Amino acid sequence: MYGRDPWGGALEINATDSATDDDRSRNLQDFDKAALSRNLDETQQSWLLGPTEQKKKKYVDLGCIIVSRKVFKWTVGCIIAAALIAGFVTLIVKTVPKHRHHNPPPDNYTIALRKALMFFNAQRSGKLPKHNNVSWRGSSALQDGKSDGSTTFKNLVGGYYDAGDAIKFNFPQSFALTMLSWSVIEYPAKYEAAAELTHVKDIIKWGTDYLLKTFNSSADTIDRVVAQVGIGDTSGGPDPNDHYCWVRPEDIDYPRPVTECHSCSDLAAEMAAALASASIVFKDNKVYSQKLVHGARTLFKFAREQRGRYSSGNEASIFYNSTSYWDEFVWGASWLYYATGNTSYLQLATTPGIVKHAGAFWGGPDYGVFSWDNKLFGAQVLLSRLRLFLSPGYPYEEILSTFHNQTSIVMCSFLPFFTSFNRTKGGLIELNHGRPQPLQYVVNAAFLATLYSDYLAAADAPGWYCGPHFYSTDVLREFAQTQIDYILGKNPRKMSYVVGFGNHYPKHVHHRGASVPKNKVKYNCKGGWKWRDSSKPNPNTLVGAMVAGPDKNDGFHDVRTNYNYTEPTLAGNAGLVAALVALSGDKSVGIDKNTIFSAVPPMFPTPPPPPAAWKP
């Protein structure tokens, strides 16, 4: 048997040993030559030499794991390198100058807004909260209601003093609260951006809490409401009252009569508007919101059933005379519709007969002038909103369309291209035709112009027509800006008519609390006259108060005793706040389209009645 010889020759196994020694020697030499003539592969070498000695690898014991020393070195090296790179990058970032993106400084309208709201803090009556932030004011008139034995309303503490005196007139106060609520409903984001949303809501609630005390707010039917607290007898009689006495509200110690009324449609409807609009502001507080709605319903029912003007035959006609109650019917019903969604209020607000009595078709020199007395134009703007965004159609379309057209016409009359209203040489529009105290009307117009501009923008309308001419919505905003800028100091006198704004503003404001020093001295009625007649600036700054304003020649007399120039009012400042918030901040932040419609159900227009049958 033969096998393969690994050395290259044949290998005989178990062959007979017949060869001679010489033959074997010769064969071995052949084997040696064959072996030397070939290279050995690795396997063959291992057979001859045995297993080769391999180089030992080195390891590192890390306790929980054993790794190769080479891998360990590479890992540690990478970590160190990464740390060095990170440290170098951090060093560069720390040493290179940074370009910080700060929020832009507030604009003038925002600054003025914050100050204008402070005026309401200074006008508060009753037990003041700790956060009132007017150092020279304190709690006052804590006996209101109790000091008059003839009234059934014994707790009339709270609310706001109307102007430079200490009388609480519910008619202009309610209008001021409605204006503030309207501005919050339309521009909550702007109030939030100015960090004033909580503040303005607190101001509104202080007023509505008081209004709820001035009638039986828990009843469904009432027969009286409070018209005012305090008396302003201007006859110069010896009895102390809120006009005869010039004292700080905190020092009032004389009786304050309560005036009730039993037929006062204008007052009750305006109070209803104030509570209804505030119920939308506080809609997230369901209990309080429903309380306000219930009170508004009760007041409006009283207004409709007990017809009459609140100022007829009493002293209110001297200070806040109401010329009609029909405009309050349209105004109050509009707000109640938005607050409740009840279409009966919308039907009333769009009833042609009521609208006619309110003066919608009369025209006249004061047409379109929105104020504490005449709310028609405000109601027209408010209901134009409904047509622009919900378009309820029949049976409301006829009057809503009329209101929309009339709103457009009045907006045209505000523009300098038209001559419905004169302007002073300094550019102030004379909405009250040169009569005193013009600014309260100007700020209301500025608010409505800006608001209507934002309505059109939200409805994707670039502008509106004045006759054959088309005007951009920017023109309305420019009108509002020029008027508010005039009030803030861009006028011939370079004077800001808002106290505390700018460096040059009235220093002799007609205001008892601001003019009498807080020096722990209690002055009697006549004792305070020396402060009224003093030529020195007020010792206390009534921050945010918008005074009555200049005359038709842009003139202004900073004299404390001349209230036609230097007295501020709640209604005037409410319009100022509304105009300022509308113009403040980023122009792209427009109105809140939907909040006012929260209670309004989906609109399904009723089809018009079919035509009469044809007769031959």
TL;DR?
The chain is mainly alpha-helical. 43% of the residues lie in helices and 5% in strands.
Question: Would you kindly provide a written description of the structure presented here, covering whatever features stand out?
Answer:
By secondary structure, this protein is mainly alpha-helical. It has 21 helices and 9 strands. The chain has helices at 21-36, 42-49, 69-95, 108-122, 170-186, 188-193, 197-211, 265-281, 286-305, 316-319, 326-340, 343-349, 352-357, 376-389, 397-414, 439-458, 473-487, 512-515, 529-532, 563-566, 570-583; strands at residues 2-4, 10-12, 59-61, 66-68, 168-169, 225-229, 258-261, 463-466, 469-472. The strands form 4 sheets. The chain has a 3-stranded antiparallel β-sheet. A two-stranded antiparallel ribbon has the order 1-2. Strands 3-4 form a two-stranded antiparallel ribbon. Helix 5 runs antiparallel to helix 7, helix 7 runs antiparallel to helix 8 (265-281) and helix 17 packs across helix 21 (570-583). The chain is globular, with a radius of gyration of 44 Å. The model is unreliable at 1-19 and 33-37 (pLDDT under 50).
What integer is the average pLDDT?
89
Beta-strand content: 5-15%
- Across the major sheet, the strand order is 5-6-7
Distance, first to last CA: 138 Å
Shape: globular
Summary keywords:
616 residues, two-stranded antiparallel sheet
Topology:
Layout: E1 2-4, E2 10-12, H1 21-36, H2 42-49, E3 59-61, E4 66-68, H3 69-95, H4 108-122, E5 168-169, H5 170-186, H6 188-193, H7 197-211, E6 225-229, E7 258-261, H8 265-281, H9 286-305, H10 316-319, H11 326-340, H12 343-349, H13 352-357, H14 376-389, H15 397-414, H16 439-458, E8 463-466, E9 469-472, H17 473-487, H18 512-515, H19 529-532, H20 563-566, H21 570-583
Antiparallel strand pairs: 1-2, 3-4, 5-6, 6-7, 8-9
Helix pairs in contact: 4-21, 5-7, 5-8, 5-21, 7-8, 8-9, 8-11, 9-11, 11-12, 11-14, 14-15, 14-16, 16-17, 16-21, 17-21
